[in-house]
Write a structure and sequence with these properties.
single chain; Immunoglobulin-like; 7-stranded mixed β-sheet; 1 helix; 46% strand; elongated; disordered N terminus; signal; Ig-like domain-containing protein; Ig-like_dom_sf
């Protein structure tokens, strides 16, 4: 009797997440992309970190040859040295953060026949603004700026742990006295609400946000508005903050 023997190739098991982990960073700062631990002996795990669509790892950990680092990355025809290092648990640390780092990052891990892929999306956090804004009595109102640098959908922000925010004010005449001005609600709509029960000298208005401009709008100019304004945006694991000092110039 003729027997057929069917030999099936063994296919390694691949684990991959559905959505990238959202990470916020500032140019010139330091950011850590946390590696997810996989089953197996840590000494036998291959860890490869990739930037964007690169096919060559930016940095890798090989059980045989140790940590290997890609020294040059080409970005828009400009060669840039990578500033990526591995921490003791093989998480990726980037310092200082460069504009070219705001990409999708992939951590590909191999142990035995299993492969695990985790992705991370690196976003700018808050837009940079001047430390001090000067206005005068000739201007009837002034805007106090605060906004996300990237046009990140609100749905993505909420999925990444965004829980709300606040505006507060500390007058220059009384640095120990801080007033709560506005609180940010995210459901069902994103809206600045006037802080209830606060007896403030600063007259702000609540408003629904249609975009990522989180500024205080049309603040009436007076001597009372001189001070430090703090915009805080709260996530599950961190708070993004921006401070602006407002000075009112006196006319001759």
């Amino acid at each position: 009797m003729l027997c057929w023997v069917l030999i099936l190739p063994f296919v390694g098991f691949l684990k991959a997440q559905e959505n990238p982990v959202v990470i916020y960073a500032q140019v010139g700062g330091t950011v850590t992309l946390q590696r997810y631990r996989v089953e197996g002996n840590a000494d036998n795990v291959y860890v490869n970190w990739y930037r964007g669509s690169d096919t060559i790892p930016t940095i890798m950990k090989n059980p045989q040859s140790g940590i290997q680092k890609g020294e040059i990355h080409v970005f828009q025809f400009i060669e840039m040295k990578t500033h990526a290092d591995l921490l003791s648990d093989f998480s990726l640390q980037i310092s200082p953060v460069q504009h070219s780092d705001f990409e999708i990052w992939r951590c590909v891990q191999h142990v035995l026949l299993a492969t695990t892929v985790n992705t991370y999306k690196l976003y700018h956090d808050l837009s940079p603004f001047p430390d001090t804004i000067y206005t005068s009595y000739s201007s009837s109102t002034v805007d106090i700026p605060c906004s996300f640098f990237s046009n990140i959908p609100w749905s993505v922000l909420k999925e990444s742990g965004f829980r709300g925010g606040s505006w507060s004010f500390t007058p220059l005449s009384d640095p120990k006295s801080t007033q709560s001005l506005l609180s940010l609600s995210v459901d069902p709509v994103v809206r600045w609400n006037i802080t209830q029960g606060a007896n403030n000298t600063i007259k702000v208005k609540g408003r629904e946000l249609k975009d990522h401009d989180l500024s205080i709008r049309n603040l009436p100019v007076s001597e009372n508005i001189r001070g430090v304004y703090t915009c805080d945006l709260k996530f599950n694991t961190k708070t993004l903050s921006s401070e602006v000092t407002v000075e009112v110039l006196k006319g001759k």
